[in-house]
Amino acid sequence: MNSTALKIVDNVGMAFVGKRGTIEKIVVAILSSGHVLIEDVPGVGKTTLVQAIAKSLGCSFKRIQFTPDLLPSDITGISVYNSKTGNFEFKEGPIVANVILADEINRSSPKTQSSLLEAMQEGQITVDGMTYKLPQPFVVLATQNPIEYEGTFPLPEAQLDRFAMRIKIGYPDFEEEKSILKFQEKPSEKIDTVITAQEVIKLREAIKDIHVEDSLEDYIISVVQATRKHPDIYLGCSPRGSLALFNASRGLAFIRNRDYVLPDDVKELAQAVLNHRIILKPEARMKGKTVSDVVSSILDSIRVPVVRSNG
């Protein structure tokens, strides 16, 4: 694994017990300029994981606790009239930071959730007709409880599509839970900053040089387009899904110390990148099918290209 990425993963692992694969995927998303949605039941460590990642990156960090009464202006900021100068002055909201923890994002209304759309896509916010650039790197790490829980609002499709990955942590195994019982002090106190904001930007630029063969680009497009034609799928992935899978695959190759992407990189990330962009038909759900099942069937049905190891 790339030494810098390894430092981040190892550092986060000191505060978040187990689930190394989950940590790797989040690091891949961040280094490939993507946002991450972490979905799971309460108590599995979603917030702890995000806080550990933010501290490891050494970037400015803000936490936004999403509640039913949260307003868009509580996130982006407002213009306040200064009686001394006679001008309106912009008072920035918590969105102005490098790393944003959008905690329990689906506890707020879709209107409030949508206040993140411009920020996540364009790295800027618009308040009262004025546009303000956000600091770089900018990444949203959102957590949400499963949508069947009381008091939650499903994220709009446009919002979901802006997340590079949706990741489920899952419950710890026996040994992992035993370690959690033994080490109950504040996890964030165990870790240090291992990379600066400027270094993150440099790594993002380096990832753009990772080689992707034409046949592998065709493979990525074929997988995504198959989601639009599958008989069990009501809504398939947009071209943003192709782009996210392409960028994430380069990020995974990078942290694995390769300068080229393999088909296995694409297959390893396909579920996390595509599953939140797909809506199944009601009849498919009634038959007990899941999005994960359908994505797996698509991957099995498409011929995998042979890629030369020398790129």
From TrEMBL:
Gene3D superfamilies listed in its UniProt record: Magnesium chelatase subunit I, C-Terminal domain (1.10.8.80), P-loop containing nucleotide triphosphate hydrolases (3.40.50.300)
Record-linked Pfam families: AAA_3, AAA_lid_2
AAA+ ATPase domain sequence ranges: 32-173
Signal peptide: none
InterPro entries noted in UniProt: AAA+_ATPase, ATPase_AAA-3, CbbQ/NirQ/NorQ/GpvN, ChlI/MoxR_AAA_lid, P-loop_NTPase
Superkingdom field: Bacteria
Protein name, per record: MoxR family ATPase
Organism: Lutispora saccharofermentans
